[in-house]
Structures are given as structure tokens and as C-alpha cells.
């Protein structure tokens, strides 16, 4: 199994690399921030990307969404110290194939990692139970959890453009100076974070909740 490590703590990366290589896993690279994680994922196309959450330049969640969207064959597994339920739920919604805590016993970690190679999710029973309870909630209650503050600055820019009538991928890409694929990535994240199904619903939600005002953009 070819593995890429993404973590902003050099000592942890060194220790994890040593553990993995002692078990005959091939570590193809190390990233110290989310931006590098995406770049190295494109370069090496690893089987598994072990992703920390709290990294500079691009967070682990942002990097996970981008890798999942652009390189679906790369299995992203979150490896973090955060036991916050919101991080767990958002990571799985973002496409991560697992969520592991850094305080795991090494045997449990490697057992779950081997399962990822077989296509199994990397989740301890406790976290799997939390996920089942969360996603078994009625849809209406999930809708109440929409959090506009979860949008990144770039996603808010895209939302502002949409409210002001710029809704096609081509026009959004031209307006923001990015590719159409990047626009699709941002729009999908907005839909996911606000638990909405299409762009019309996003615009209506933004106007009703005064997230942005028509005419904010020049």
C-alpha cells in the first residue's frame, strides 16, 4: 500500500513514517499543509492519504474535499487529535474513507488501515456508532443545522456572484479567474454545507437569511 502523510507537525510525520515503513508500507511523500497535500496527491497518486485536520494554508477538510473531487481513486483517511463530533461528521460528508484519532493503539491503527486496503471504512466502533446516530436523524433536523459560517472566503465569493445573477459555471469561472472545474468544486461544497439541492435553493436561502445582498459585487 502506497501512503501519503499530511500533517503540520514534523516530529509526528517522522514517527508515523517510521511506524509505517516498519510494517512494510511505502510512504511516497509528506505534506506539511493542506495545499501540499493536494499537490503531492496529484504527483504520487497514493492508495491512501492520511490527512490531519488543523493545517495551515488549506485545512484538512478543504484538502479532503478537493482530493475526493479531483482524485476519487485516492482514499483519504483523517488522522487527527480532534474528537469533536462536528469534525467527524463533516469529514465523512466531505468524502473521507475513515476518521482515526492519534491516540489509537498501534495495533488498532494498522488493523483499520489494512481494512481500508480492502475497501472498508476506517472507523472505531465508537465513532461508527456516532455516525449512525447522526445520519439516522430526520432530514428536517439536519436542515436546521445549516451553518453559513462554515463557508470559506472563496465559497462566500461564489455565493455573492450567484446572488447577483452569475450562475453558470463559465461565467463564474470568468468572473473569479478560476477554472470551471474549480467552480464546480466550490458550488458542490456550498450545497453540501448548507444541505441544499441546487443553485436556486442556495440563492433563495442566501437572500432570506441576508447572507449577502444583491448589488454587493461591483
Outline the secondary-structure elements:
Layout: E1 2-6, H1 10-22, E2 26-31, H2 34-44, E3 48-51, H3 60-70, E4 75-80, H4 85-93, E5 98-101, H5 106-117, H6 125-135, H7 139-143, H8 153-163, H9 169-176, H10 180-194, H11 199-208
Parallel strand pairs: 1-2, 1-3, 3-4, 4-5
**Rg on CA atoms, Å:** 19 Å
| C-alpha end-to-end distance | 50 Å
CATH superfamily of the largest domain: Response regulator
CATH topology name of the largest domain: Rossmann fold
In the CATH hierarchy, what is the architecture of the largest domain at level 2?
3-Layer(aba) Sandwich
Mean pLDDT: 85
Oligomer: single chain
User: Which CATH C-level class of the largest domain is it?
Assistant: Alpha Beta
Beta-strand residue percentage: 5-15%
Which blocks of ≥5 consecutive residues have pLDDT under 50? 138-144
Q: What's the total number of strands?
A: 5
Largest beta sheet, briefly? 5 strands, parallel
The DSSP helix count reads 11
Provide the domain count.
Answer: 2
Q: Looking across the biggest beta sheet, what order are the strands in?
A: 2-1-3-4-5
Overall shape: globular
Amino acid at each position: 500500500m502506497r501512503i501519503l502523510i499530511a500533517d503540520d507537525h514534523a516530529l509526528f510525520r517522522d514517527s508515523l513514517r517510521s511506524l509505517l515503513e516498519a510494517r512494510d508500507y511505502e510512504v511516497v511523500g509528506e505534506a506539511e499543509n493542506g495545499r501540499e497535500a493536494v499537490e503531492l496527491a496529484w504527483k504520487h497518486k497514493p492508495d491512501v492519504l492520511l490527512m490531519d485536520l488543523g493545517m495551515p494554508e488549506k485545512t484538512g477538510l478543504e484538502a479532503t474535499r478537493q482530493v475526493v473531487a479531483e482524485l476519487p481513486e485516492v482514499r483519504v483517511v483523517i488522522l487527527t487529535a480532534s474528537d469533536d463530533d462536528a469534525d467527524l461528521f463533516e469529514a465523512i460528508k466531505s468524502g473521507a474513507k475513515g476518521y482515526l484519532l492519534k491516540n489509537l493503539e498501534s495495533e488498532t491503527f494498522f488493523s483499520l488501515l489494512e481494512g481500508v486496503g480492502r475497501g472498508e471504512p476506517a472507523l472505531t466502533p465508537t465513532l461508527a456508532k456516532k455516525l449512525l446516530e447522526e445520519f439516522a436523524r430526520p432530514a428536517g433536523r439536519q436542515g436546521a443545522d445549516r451553518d453559513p459560517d462554515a463557508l470559506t472566503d472563496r465559497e462566500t465569493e461564489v455565493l455573492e456572484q450567484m446572488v447577483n445573477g452569475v450562475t453558470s459555471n463559465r461565467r463564474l469561472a470568468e468572473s473569479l479567474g478560476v477554472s470551471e472545474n474549480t467552480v464546480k468544486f466550490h458550488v458542490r461544497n456550498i450545497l453540501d454545507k448548507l444541505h441544499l439541492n441546487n443553485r436556486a435553493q442556495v440563492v433563495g436561502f442566501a437572500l432570506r437569511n441576508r447572507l449577502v445582498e444583491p448589488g454587493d459585487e461591483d
